[in-house]
From TrEMBL:
Residues 433-494 form the Methyltransferase domain. Residues 101-132 are annotated as: Disordered. Pfam families: Methyltransf_31. This is Methyltransferase domain-containing protein.
Length: 611
């Protein structure tokens, strides 16, 4: 090797150019030598698998800084299931798999993901950093593994290797041995891998997105519709971003282990709150166009209404006043990207159909993923990869709930009054006038109208109010049951609506709130009850049904919207003490309003205003 090296160096000319070429050649030779020694197991690599849990395997290696990119591989028995390149300076302190767009993990989530498969511990310094010798660097890696346990039989091994060198697994030694039999086996896994299945970014075993033509076709249809609506209604290009952009640039199509389709638009606004408000409007426009939407804190999920498993993600981006492109979801790179870098979009070929892609996309990819974006990382996870995030563009609870309930009432309807209506309607002194606060699709408003009551239903969702109005007309109670859009968090609008309704009726009225108080924040509830007290007259009735703190940990049929669980006794005390009502009847129990597999614990209360 040395004699060959001398002969090669002797062919390089003298002078400054020759000196530079010699230095470059020596660096390349040292890298080649280290690469060979890593593959042969002769480089003393320090590393460890520090987290070995049901959903995630994560760890680090420490190598000489000039060591070429070398993969970490995940093995089940003799099967190499996945391979990823560890990232220099990756943070290990945040390696908890969470619902990453929902904010920090709850204590329950953190406890769940600290639980280690088959026993063992999670090691490492709390800040995820170690004493790194001069000339070395730490590289972090992770795999999402929630589905692999189904394929392991008792005694099957799991190993993680850097090059050919196994890495120790904290609490287990150089390998993990499965303690029990899963639902399938390694032979079946190999058969699926032979057919093009892969370990996905989210830890499942699924057909590669490069091969799943049905998925590609359905996704292309959703993307085309979103692109059309956003382009025509808002004037924005919807282009591929994140993993879909990365796949388009690096691989000419989908990344096989990717889990979804990522798209984005750039708002004309220059602040996060304005861009967030625009994606709310876009979500409602997509809903109006027949798509199903689910707005999260940092992204909008757009589903195929015929089959929710097909969806694309739409991200809102914006250039801030300094001209920097900002990402409420976040980026993993450190390079700047400004208005000078963005030159518009162009149509490019993509599996399933053409897509819009930013022109000159490589700088944007490097901005999002870092300079090592060309290296495949199936275990890449945003919870510990983010280096910068535009938190001011995060959607508020109120914004998300507005979209949630609009989507809900566009997809769900009931043909008769609720069980709570059934109980309240039996009251001997039921008022002739009812204001249904948080009326939703008008289910109970129409039911009150059918028994001869005059009803005003108010709700923040325009979709719900539109549906309720149509329902009332269809049932022949359109003259008795009317509806208005009113957000109860708007104190002025709420006060006006309540006062006008109360002034229109000389007799007693019923303030009716079914399944509503647990959907608003405590301060909004306080303001609402204060407004009711301000307009109420002697003899007016109050009827409410809501989830209590006893229901908090029970199974829920519907998720991704705000719920607040309060104590029934404390509510009654406030109703009687501060708000001037005498309780006629109340009850806290399950069995009051079961729905599917859910049987919530509810508090029902009927009270009379005493003046």
């Amino acid at each position: 090797m040395a004699s060959v090296r001398r002969r090669v160096l002797n062919t390089i000319p003298e002078g400054p150019r020759g000196k530079l070429l010699r230095a470059r050649r020596e660096i390349l030779e040292r890298k080649a030598e280290v690469t060979g020694r890593v593959r042969n197991g002769t480089v003393p690599v320090t590393g460890m698998v520090e987290r070995f849990a049901e959903t995630q395997v994560a760890g680090w290696v420490m190598v000489p800084s000039h060591t070429p990119a070398t993969p970490v591989t995940l093995h089940l028995g003799s099967i190499q299931l996945s391979s990823t390149y560890p990232t220099p300076d990756g943070a290990l302190s945040a390696m908890i798999v969470t619902k990453e767009d929902q904010g920090p993990p709850t204590a329950q989530e953190a406890a769940k993901h600290r639980r280690v498969v088959g026993g063992g511990t999670t090691a490492g310094r709390p800040d995820g950093r170690r004493n790194i010798p001069a000339g070395y660097e730490q590289r972090a890696f992770s795999f999402q593994v929630r589905a692999i346990w189904d394929y392991l039989s008792k005694g099957d091994t799991v190993t993680i290797r850097f090059g050919d060198q196994p890495l120790p697994i904290v609490g287990h030694g150089m390998f993990f041995r499965a303690p029990k039999k899963g639902r399938s086996d390694l032979k079946t896994l190999q058969q699926r891998l032979d057919k093009g299945f892969t370990l996905t970014q989210t830890g499942g075993i699924a057909l590669s997105k490069r091969l799943d033509e049905e998925w590609q076709r359905r996704i292309a249809g959703i993307y085309a519709k979103v692109r059309e609506v956003v382009g025509e209604r808002f004037g924005h290009d919807v282009f591929v971003i994140y993993g879909t952009l990365l796949g388009s640039v690096r691989e000419g199509g989908y990344i096989g282990h990717d889990a979804d389709f990522d798209s984005a638009f750039i708002s004309d606004h220059r602040t996060g709150p304005e861009a967030a408000e625009e994606i709310v409007a876009i979500a409602l426009a997509l809903l109006d166009a027949g798509l199903e939407v689910d707005l999260r804190q940092r992204v909008l999920h757009v589903h195929d209404p015929e089959d929710r498993k097909y969806r694309i993600d739409l991200f809102h981006l914006y250039f801030d006043p300094e001209g920097r492109l900002r990402f409420p979801w976040g980026i993993a790179g450190t390079r700047a990207y400004t208005t000078a870098d963005y030159t518009g979009t162009e149509l490019v070929d993509f599996p399933g159909g053409k897509v819009l892609r930013p022109k000159n996309p490589e700088p944007l990819v490097a901005h999002i993923y870092g300079d090592d974006w060309k290296l495949p990382k199936p275990g890449f996870h945003w919870s510990h990869a983010r280096r910068d995030v535009a938190d001011d563009g995060v959607l508020t609870t109120a914004q998300r709930d507005k979209v949630y309930w609009s989507n809900f009432y566009a997809r769900h309807s009931n043909t008769e009054g609720s069980t709570f209506f059934g109980e309240v309607s039996k009251l001997d002194d039921l008022p002739d006038a009812v204001i249904d606060i948080g009326c939703g699709d008008g289910r109970d408003s129409c039911a009150f109208g059918q028994i001869g009551r005059s009803v005003l239903g108010i709700d923040q969702s325009g979709v719900a109010v539109e549906g309720a109005t149509a329902r009332a007309k269809q049932l022949g109670v359109g003259e008795r049951a009317t509806f208005e859009v009113c957000d109860v968090s708007d104190s002025e609008a709420l006060g006006k609506a309540l006062q006008q309704f109360r002034d229109q009726h000389e007799g007693s009225v019923l303030f009716y709130l079914r399944f509503f108080l647990h959907s608003i924040k405590a301060e909004v509830q306080e303001d609402l009850l204060s407004h009711i007290r301000a307009v109420a007259r002697d003899g007016d009735l109050f009827a409410a049904e809501f989830r209590t703190d006893e229901d908090e940990k029970l199974k829920k049929t519907f998720g991704n919207h705000y719920r607040r669980f309060q104590n029934a006794a404390e509510f009654r005390s406030a109703l009687e003490g501060r708000f001037g009502f005498d309780v006629i009847t109340d009850q806290e129990s399950d069995g009051l309003s079961p729905y599917g597999d859910e049987d919530p614990i509810l508090y029902r209360v009927v009270a009379r205003y005493r003046g």
